Amino acid sequence: MTSFFELKKNGTNLQTEIIAGLSSFLATSYIIVVNPSILSQAGMPFSAVLTATVLVCFFSSLMMGLYAKNPILVAPGMGLNAFFTFTAVLGMKVPWPVALGAVFWSGVVFLLLSAFNVRTYIIKAIPRPLRYSIAAGIGLFISLIGFSNAKFIVSNPATIVGPGALTPAVLTFLAGLLVTAVLVTRQVKGGILMGILFTTLAAYPIGRWWGTEELIHWQGLFAAPDFSLFFSLDLVNSLQWAVVPVIFAFVFTDMFDSLSTLVGLAEAANLLDERGEPRNVKRSLMVDAIATTMAGLVGSSPGTAYIESAVGIEAGGRTGLTAVVGALLFLPFLFLAPLLSVIPAIATAPAVVLVGVFMVRPVTKINWQQLDEAIPAFLAMVLIPFSYSITQGIIWGFLSWTALKLISGKKEDVTWPLLIVDVFCIIALVLE
């Protein structure tokens, strides 16, 4: 083990790697509950999505550790699950089996792009300000979903949206948000997961003491894994022209989420090769692509490298052993679906809101004084939550960037790969 993971070469040891793996797991484990709670709103069984989520986390993180040898966990991506449920299924009325097919095909495309190193051209095609703003826009979108799930923000005919009534459930959500924020601020390991557990316990009296609808329904502790979503994807209908924008959005979002995470973690922990690139980046992207392909087969939204892996890296994790330890810790949750299904939407809502905080950070890297870049970045960022569609933010961000650069006489900022992406954006508009 020491020689396989090159522990001494990387300045680490077995104990440090195990602690780092546990730390990354605690920081990432909220996805076990949050992903099923989001995808179940698309009509998919909670227990089956939980099984799929755990399997994606386990196998993908294991591959990242053994094949790519990086201390990075892989799990269904926040933002990607929101796009699956709220944009594709509920917004575009794509049946969830077809959406799972789109996940599978996006994984295949991602796999081909990674295998043939097309990522280099795609990276050059995407202006950095748009990368930052799209990440921030997805963060705002996720936070909006969290507030909506908690009924803190509700539909209002006069103002489009507005604040909800301060019911016992909303007050419990606010208490959970405060506690979770304090835990995260104080950098408590597993703080988000602790916040979910606190809010669940706080929600127990609702419906029992306060006379409203009960939110906690105990169904037991253990159960066999639910494999009912395995191979339930629709591979044929997911290749219709109307679904192409969904596949494109999955590929685009997944690839750049993965790339930005890998680059960020590599820079922070000096996990770089001799050329200054993230260590084993091609293998890491291959793992991400396989994770997405697998997710479509087992019944989940796409998998991606998790930025929360930084917690384990900060704890000293430097090799793939960190990811292997984290992967193994996911497995027991295959048998805890009844216990985890007790957790209500208001308990996961604080975690969802705070994930938005983490994702909005890149906006500080945008030069807001340079308007031909600031305006497209702003449009991409705000149109994602305002239109309730990640696709719309991406499309208008790219098209406005190209138009402003060309009209401003800055043709050198518009590359031919970017023009190809623009063509796909126009096709997506026509097909919607």
UniProtKB/TrEMBL annotation:
Q: Which InterPro entries match?
A: Azg-like, Azg-like_bact_archaea, NCS2
Answer yes or no on keyword ATP-binding: no
What residues form the membrane-spanning segments?
A: 18-38, 44-66, 73-92, 98-118, 130-148, 160-184, 191-210, 319-337, 343-363, 375-399, 414-431
Pfam families, sorted? Xan_ur_permease (PF00860)
> Where is this gene product found?
Cell membrane
From what superkingdom does this record's organism come? Bacteria
Q: Which UniProt keywords apply?
A: Cell membrane, Membrane, Transmembrane, Transmembrane helix, Transport
Q: Topology in the membrane?
A: Multi-pass membrane protein
Q: Transmembrane: is it a keyword of this entry?
A: yes
The family classification in the record reads: Belongs to the nucleobase:cation symporter-2 (NCS2) (TC 2.A.40) family. Azg-like subfamily.
| Xref: PANTHER family | XANTHINE/URACIL PERMEASE C887.17-RELATED, XANTHINE_URACIL PERMEASE C887.17-RELATED
Task: Indicate what this protein is called per its UniProt record.
Answer: NCS2 family permease
**Source species of the chain:** Rufibacter sediminis
